[in-house]
Amino acid sequence: MIVGVTGGIASGKSTVARAFAALGVPWVDADDVAREVVEPGEPALREIAERYGERVLQADGRLNRRALREIVFADERERRWLESVTHPRIRQRIIGQLERMQAEGAPYVLLVSPLLFESRQSELADRCLVIDVPESLQIARTAARDDVDEAQARAIVAAQMPRSERLARADDVIDNAGSEDELAVQVAELDRRYREMRIP
Ligand code: ATP
After folding, report:
1. pLDDT tens, 181-194?
2. How far is the CA of 11 from the centre of ligand 1 (A)?
3. Which contacts qualify for 156-162: CB closer than 8 Å, 24 or more apart?
């Protein structure tokens, strides 16, 4: 069984993934995979460099993310082109990693993705688990963790999928407005249920 895990910025996806890992459940991080497919030597990076030239590469040959972001932010067509180059490869690699973990005997596996619904990666999952926190707490935790002020954090939250929409698509919900101990209790309860679901 594949459980998709999502939530807005600073909702606690990584914290939840670590709590499941402590119970022996592995995960694939879609953000990590998205970075891997554009590493030097990868065909996606070659295609990107062929289309935009040196300006999207750093001196060391790695992708200049800021330069690429500026190009695709300004042009919807280019954004779609970039997605057509990266998304299928991200998806294939996610599937490969999930299959490997399942073959190694994991009780079930997690696909942790901030854009689980938006990128339709939820299609790869049997269930979707949403980490839910009030927006005020998301903003406070973002500002405390990242180098952004509250106004910037609020803007990021406002640009993401609305909380209500995410919740409407959830099969399961973790309320992460409490302490990390309270989070661990919810994770343990879900883990118990997921292990039972796996049995036909
Ligand atoms: P992002 O998508 O932005 O990478 P995320 O959803 O993976 O974030 P985390 O990095 O797990 O979120 O958590 C965001 C911040 O909130 C971290 O600094 C984390 O330590 C803190 N945090 C998470 N859960 C709790 C909690 N229950 N109590 C207090 N702090 C928490």
Report:
1. 999 999 999 999 99
2. 6
3. 156/9, 157/8, 157/9, 160/8, 160/9, 161/8, 161/117, 161/118
Question: pTM (2 decimals)?
Answer: 0.93
Both tokens of 82, joined, read 């970039």
Q: How many residues would you count in the chain?
A: 200
**Three-state SS for 30?**
helix
The Å distance, Cα 132 to ligand 1 centre, comes to: 11
Determine the distance separating the centroid of ligand 1 and the alpha carbon of 47, expressed in angstroms: 35
DSSP letter string, 152-169: HHHHHHHHSPPHHHHHHT
- Say how far apart CA 110 and CA 79 lie, in whole Å: 28
Ligand 1 binding site (Cβ under 6 Å of any ligand atom): 7, 9-15, 114, 141, 145, 176, 179-180, 183
